[in-house]
Amino acid sequence: MKHITIACALAALFACASTVETSQPAPGGNVPIEELNQKVIKSSSLPRQLEVTHAFVRRENDVLQVQLELASHASFASDLRYLFEWFDADGMKLYEAGEGWRRETIEAGHRLSLQGSASNAAAADWRFTMEKWDR
């Protein structure tokens, strides 16, 4: 876990990114805000009004799955690209064949659910990065 925290901090510094700021607590049984802030990296190029408000994590059929809830409080649509990354119990990154950036647009004042599933049963942890998508 220590390695993931260090990796997140370095990624944030080198990508001019900051952790997501959120004021709402996660519902019972889901990822606590403190942990969510360590796992979600938001580029400073995205509007401040775009935030990850909740994370739901489960393991189904030995596969780690994550669903994130995004909210836009901006007065304009935001284009973003995002990436889910998966790590084993020792904090080592698991590279996946289908891994890559995905693109999405969130309309002003709307909410959006984004989901990711590890394809490797060894996945024990995750990280989510989002940044501005320039069309």
Overview of the structural elements:
The chain is mostly beta strands and 135 residues long. It has a single domain (2-132), classed as Immunoglobulin-like. The chain contains two helices and nine strands, in the order αβαββββββββ. Strands 1, 2, 5, 6, 7 and 9 form a six-stranded mixed β-sheet that branches. Strands 3-4-8 form a three-stranded antiparallel β-sheet, with no helix packed on it. The protein is globular. The protein starts with a helix and ends with a strand.
Unreliable stretches (pLDDT < 50, length at least 5) are 1-29
If you consult CATH, what is the topology? Answer: Immunoglobulin-like
CATH class: Mainly Beta
Molecular shape: globular
Compute the gyration radius: what is it?
14 Å
Kindly state the percentage of residues in helix: 10-25%
How many angstroms separate the termini? 36 Å
Q: Summarize the main sheet.
A: 6 strands, mixed
Query: Overall mean pLDDT score?
Result: 80
Which architecture does the CATH hierarchy give at level 2? Sandwich
Structural class: mainly beta
Protein traits:
2 helices, three-stranded antiparallel beta sheet, globular, single chain, mainly beta, 44% strand, disordered N terminus
Topology summary:
Elements lengths: L1 H13 L2 E3 L13 H7 E4 L6 E11 L2 E10 L5 E10 L5 E2 L7 E5 L4 E7 L7 E8 L3
Parallel strand pairs: 2-9
Antiparallel strand pairs: 1-2, 3-4, 4-8, 5-6, 5-7, 5-9
